[in-house]
Amino acid sequence: MGGLSAGLLGVAASEVARAETLADVPDRAPGADLGAHSERSRFARLDRIPEATPGKRNIDPSDAINSKTPHQKLVGNITPTDLHYERSHSGVPDIDPAQHRLLVHGMVRKPLVFSVEDLKRMPSVTRIVFIECTGNGWENWKKADPDLTVQNTHGLVSTNEWTGVPLKFLIDLVAKDKGSTWMLAEGGDGAGVDRSIPLTDEIVNEAFVAYGQNGEPLRPAHGFPMRLVMPGFEGNLNIKWLRRLKFGNAPWMTRWETARYTQLLANGKARQFQLRMETNSVITQPSGMMQIQPGYNRISGLAWSGHGKIAKVEISTDGARTWKQAQLAQPVLSKAQVRFQMDWDWDGKPTRIVSRSTDEQGNAQPDRQTFIAAMGTNALFHYNAQQTWSIDEAGRVRNVLA
Amino acid sequence: MGGLSAGLLGVAASEVARAETLADVPDRAPGADLGAHSERSRFARLDRIPEATPGKRNIDPSDAINSKTPHQKLVGNITPTDLHYERSHSGVPDIDPAQHRLLVHGMVRKPLVFSVEDLKRMPSVTRIVFIECTGNGWENWKKADPDLTVQNTHGLVSTNEWTGVPLKFLIDLVAKDKGSTWMLAEGGDGAGVDRSIPLTDEIVNEAFVAYGQNGEPLRPAHGFPMRLVMPGFEGNLNIKWLRRLKFGNAPWMTRWETARYTQLLANGKARQFQLRMETNSVITQPSGMMQIQPGYNRISGLAWSGHGKIAKVEISTDGARTWKQAQLAQPVLSKAQVRFQMDWDWDGKPTRIVSRSTDEQGNAQPDRQTFIAAMGTNALFHYNAQQTWSIDEAGRVRNVLA
């Protein structure tokens, strides 16, 4: 990352205390014994927000049940494993990996059933990718709640390093029929979430059955012992607790792609199979419910696209009138969240800040008016309009629809 | 990653059970409520091994006290945050970030003292790098213990994503004297580990003061609330609980670079300031104390170099007579561990497997005889000889010196 301009460097330095000697620094202290795990500091409070309709247990398959990543407290690109967002339709099953199996059948010559150990002995791919719930951002579609944090508005997207067996390798093992153009993936949760996936070249080449997450076995909430990872596509296609892949030549029209996860458009028609996640970005620092001071401020956030790499992120600090290009953390990875940042000297006057991203294929994140004009207000999913935060004269940062 | 050869594909498939229907797969089950954190499965047992001389508490600064990463149970490139190796000379201090300060002084025009919040408001860099204890691998320097796991032999290196303020930015803020060519970095632990660091262009451009680790605040064992990250250099230079950077024009000759962390060579002379970590690799699967079966096996491991990117990893399955190039997980990052893998059809006969890496600057990992010939047997640090695992007719994998 480049340094500040000379002017901002002076602003930043002026806010730091001057000191000459160690008398200005707390003394050293001996510490606790080393252990088997490095636990979090008691001073670092990091929690997701589990959300469920009041009075309902977290196992109602038609209820909106999730637990959101606290992006306002995080740094870098990777999401801590225990804070990767959760979304479930029947809670988190407790699966014994020794008992679990993955059936791969349908239009194949050699139907097979795989154990976790079978998968671990096979060639693997390791890749850092974002996974995003298709409902991420829906809060700002319908109404303006000024008290939302970025955890509320954008907490249903996270980025981890995933490791597993390429789908293409399993396809070769079972000798898939060349006439098969669709695949059904089914989860081992009580709801049995299952989705039809078109076997495009991109999906065949990039999808994989993961058993590893940030270096360790998947966490139960994220699909232990195995899940599908579909870089760039709807979170609900990344089937957790994966128990079955079935090959066919047409979509199965499961309840998850008919009653659920369809888009009711402005004209009353419903759109099915809108599978790819859009070009998106959000400022996480400063963000909703924070308070800032006049003078030097660092603006930082995350950008991502289901189409590939982020090409640029622009930031406006004057309510989308003028824009400046932000710096991106290198290297920028395809279909992964990337941290962006920009220096800002706030003059203390009320204003609005907003980010917009563009990916390597030229897809640009729309402003909210353009987005609503195209999609209407009936739909629930794939909200990727620019996120605006207002800042008042007291430095209070609030969610606003622009 | 590419697929298997047709022959090995058949071998791999033959070891997987055939099945046609869901009757062969365990049934689905409802799950537990979602929570604020995604905890590990009760079936995933992952612990480091804390090591300390019996009868001593973990706070003796001259004792060998560390806690090692269980590489034999991990996948991918990134080490889980709570399993990143620990090495400490006086335990893990419990520091309140609101009280902690970093003094930057010495040959500078504007000595300053920084709080954690000061750092977080500044431009940041995010980078995935390995950190390696200079004593990693010493167990195999002196003697052959067949019962060591890869956690024992190579558990003092780990890879995380770190986020913090570039050293260069702090240098500009305090207006360092151009005549300053060395920097003292001092920790806030009881032992007050402090090291003299030469201000080469590489170090000035790459070092940073980190406050983030895998997306979250540093864990206390890894330097909370701030540490120095020195990509490619000895772990003990990556000063944890950082409380001071002092600029000067000569090394300070602290006890950590005179009594400790020097290399006693074969001729009786001691080498000081051997700071860069060497080109290295190790097979983690299969590795010490595992048992394998004849037939298809996947060989997998980790490679890294303090000089830059790994260019290639070669594997021998016949005791270093013939070598084949392994596949590397993409993208390969500079000064980060990278996962390598290769397919292998084991014929069931006793053999030895070994890996060797070469980095982009042409540095090749030496075999053990070459290494010992050059370094002798008096030294303790910077062991990077090739690691050989023997496999007997029963498939038992054991540590061996080759």
Automatic annotation (TrEMBL), chains A, B:
Name of a matching Pfam family: Oxidored_molyb
Domain Moybdenum cofactor oxidoreductase dimerisation: 274-382
Keywords of this entry: Metal-binding, Molybdenum, Oxidoreductase
Gene3D superfamilies: 2.60.40.650, Oxidoreductase, molybdopterin-binding domain (3.90.420.10)
SUPFAM superfamilies: E set domains, Oxidoreductase molybdopterin-binding domain
Region Disordered, annotated ranges: 49-70
Cofactor: Mo-molybdopterin
GO MF terms, alphabetically ordered: heme binding; molybdenum ion binding; molybdopterin cofactor binding; sulfite oxidase activity
InterPro entries: Ig_E-set (IPR014756), MoCF_OxRdtse_dimer (IPR005066), Mopterin_OxRdtase_euk (IPR008335), OxRdtase_Mopterin-bd_dom (IPR000572), OxRdtase_Mopterin-bd_sf (IPR036374), Sulfite_DH_SoxC (IPR030835)
Domain Oxidoreductase molybdopterin-binding per the UniProt entry, residue ranges: 89-256
Keyword Oxidoreductase recorded: yes
GO BP terms: sulfur compound metabolic process
Protein name as annotated: Molybdopterin-binding protein
